[in-house]
Hints:
five-stranded mixed beta sheet; mainly beta; globular; 2 helices
Amino acid sequence: MKSLLWPVALLAISAFAEADPAWRARVAPESEPGERLVIRGRVLRTQGGPPAAGTRIFVYQTDAKGIYGPGQGSPASISRLRAEFTAGPNGEYEIVTIRPGHYPGGGVPAHIHLNLVEGGKPTRQVSEFFFAGDQYLRGGEQGFVLQLRKDAQGRWQGSQDFALADK
């Protein structure tokens, strides 16, 4: 006779499983095709200054084929791969996603958009993450060019700290 307690015990254990911290955004589900990518860093109030804990972060990107999503509209509003989350107590953030593709037709470097909302201030696009070695990088891009490396699990890893203000 099968025990009915086993499924109940499994449910009880999973109910107490540790959830991702608020400073980690899972932008692309594991089922999303593409090369896995993790970007980590800290949001600071000023260059070299204290952490900007609690800053809201909004990221969006294309899928591996360079498509934001179905329909028409601004990429931020139609993007399938996007997340909004909060920088941690030490300003830390982590984005778990895939490497975005180039737009169909090429010409534009692959990138991830990054917007911030700091304590009641208006949303502003801070920057974009680009990737070193991208065939479409021309220099002078307004954003961060990340140096990526693969970890033991074959995921791309990058890091970037950024400041809300210059001083």
